[in-house]
Structure formats: structure tokens, C-alpha cells
Design goal:
single chain; four-stranded mixed beta sheet; two-stranded antiparallel ribbon; 5 helices; 6 strands; 25% strand; globular
Length: 167
């Protein structure tokens, strides 16, 4: 059975962990201006969109998602094309080093905090780097079924190659 999903198309683009913190001798890790600006952007987003997303989430929990308390969250980080790919003739189209997976923690914590929902219910997800005109994060939330490691291995195709650790 297919369930409706929540799509958030304009969540702020979080910094990477390396952009979000800096080490200060004698103090430890301190939030950078990048992280402070992101948190401010999330507060602004919440003021405009938070109530409608929470209402949609609560409605789906009570109706179409009834009984589901585990969720799959996908993060689609949208960057300007020139941040993802080289544009010089010599290196045209070669991917640039741009860390996207370390943005998940900031995005997830900020989103669920803004919505007042405990992120302990997130059981799976993924991330993608996308090219676009406006940098942002497109997030989808949908019901998920928690699984065991046995179920995970059973879900693999029998024809999948094995590694030495699996033999």
C-alpha cells in the first residue's frame, strides 16, 4: 500500500559539520557564523511554514499513516551547479569536493526541532546532491517499517556479489 509523503521544498541548506564548527583553544568547538546563520534561517522558515508542516504531519499520523511511528527521511541538498562541478575547459564536468553527507545531522536536528517532533522516529533515509538555481534542502518524510538485520539480508537479491566477510 502506498502512503502519501510530506515534501518540504524550501528548507534552508545547512552547512557541513566542518563549516558549522571551529575549534577554539581552551574552549572547544564553537558554532561558526555559517551555523548561526543557518539556525536563523530555520527559525524564519519555521515562522512561515512550520505550522502547516506540523498540521500535515499530524493529519497523516492520524489518518493515512495510522499505526506508523517509524519514518524514512530523504535529504536532497540543492547546490548551484558551479559548486558541484568544475567549469574550466580542462576539468569541465568533473565533480568538485563538496561534503553533503555531513549536512544531514544539522538538517535533521533543525527540522524536527522546528516541528517539535522527536527525531527518534527516523529509521532510514538517504541524501542526494542536486544542481539547481536556488540553494536549499528538499526533504521528504514518509512512513517506514523498522527491520532487523536478518530482514535486511533477506531483502538482498540472491545474485548480489558477496565479499570475503560474507563468505
Amino acid at each position: 500500500m502506498s502512503h502519501p509523503i510530506i515534501v518540504i521544498s524550501d528548507f534552508p541548506l545547512p552547512p557541513s559539520v566542518n563549516e558549522g564548527y571551529r575549534n577554539v583553544p581552551g574552549v572547544g568547538r564553537v558554532a561558526t557564523e555559517h551555523l548561526k546563520n543557518f539556525r536563523k534561517s530555520v527559525d524564519d522558515w519555521r515562522q512561515v511554514h512550520g505550522r502547516s508542516v506540523v498540521a500535515a504531519f499530524q493529519s497523516l499520523l492520524l489518518k493515512e499513516w495510522a499505526g506508523h511511528r517509524a519514518f524514512r527521511v530523504s535529504y536532497n541538498f540543492v547546490f548551484k551547479h558551479e559548486r558541484l562541478f568544475c567549469t574550466s575547459k580542462k576539468l569541465m564536468g568533473k565533480p568538485k569536493k563538496l561534503d553533503a553527507d555531513s549536512r544531514i545531522k544539522f538538517a535533521q536536528d533543525s527540522l524536527f526541532n522546528a516541528l517539535g517532533i522527536d527525531d527518534c522516529h527516523v529509521f532510514s533515509g538517504e541524501f542526494r546532491k542536486l544542481s539547481g538555481e536556488v540553494e536549499c534542502t528538499v526533504i521528504t518524510i514518509q512512513p517506514d517499517e523498522p527491520m532487523t538485520s536478518v530482514e535486511l539480508f533477506q531483502s538482498f537479491n540472491n545474485e548480489a556479489p558477496t565479499t570475503n566477510s560474507e563468505q
